[in-house]
Amino acid sequence: MMKSRSILVLCLFVLASVGCQKTSTSPGQSSPSPSGPVTASTARSTAKLTGGPWRVFVTNESSGDVSVIDGETHTVITTVPLGKRPRGIHPNHDGTKLFVALSGSPLAPPGVDESKLPKADKKADGIGIVDVANTSFEKLMAAGSDPEEFAVTSDGSKVYIANEDAGVASMLDLASGRITKSWPVGDEPEGVSIRPDGNVVYVTSEDNGTVTVIDTARQTVLKTFKVGRRPRVIAFLPDGSRAYVSLENDQALAVIDAVNHTLLNTVTVGRLGDRDVKPMGIAVHPDGKKIFVSTGRAGKVFAIDTSSHTSTGEVVVGPRPWGIAISPDGKLLYTANGPSNDVSVIDASTLEVLSRINVGNRPWGIAILKSK
Fold this sequence. Notes:
By secondary structure, the protein is mainly β.
């Protein structure tokens, strides 16, 4: 009898130990990422995931389409075929159309021998237009060579485009469907953003480490200035006073006086010397008090306070997050995780991953629109 009781006590002790075990994290560390995609339904069962009346559009670079996610259920409701290598994605001024950068240039990861790549299909280059109401592809507009990122003017009349392999920024007039102006902006231009007042456009050059400022009224280059190594994207604060540029090879953000177009300082993202942290995408909270930065190889998103320029938290979201966007109410973040073919949904206040949603092949860019 004593032996049986001893075995019973031992079993209860083991069960209690296993049930109480938790993964420990030191202060400032994020919890480990989920081992696999977490469904929206699983997340909602813990009463953590609450979406809203919006749709999330995700470009899938390798499968050539866009996944449409319902913001309330966090499920993919449809997939729209687009063309070759869809990357940058942005809505027009009234949210009736989505514009997508398409490119017939082959994928060329860093270090690849470009002489051995397939020939570029220049007929596939352009800006694709998606009708939002019908979630259908309408047409492809010529937009210069190898468009990657772009920005749409607030009146919906023009699109400013980074033509990556041509080293220029181009202006597409949507009424005529023609490129009406181009400016040299350095080798491998990528990020394009319009200051909220619409008066200037910023364009980054990855190879030159610069930002070029274009005056939208005079259609001339105002200034080009150095920001750091391999600048990627640009994000303005809502009041247009400052801009932030992600510096992939400096593990940093460039902080820019967006009125005088000068570099104020650089801010390290993550722990100094963490070579896996490669700042990529930037999402600005609607109140302008925080920005959120995706970091590629590190698999993390960092929250940065815009007054102190200090990190307020970090979270592992998935492999190589690139595109990042924030919901209209500022409560949820979405990241495109290329290698795992999914999108992470993150609580913007607690920095918890609430869900991971399977999408197409190699998700790249994200745009969010309120449902009509």
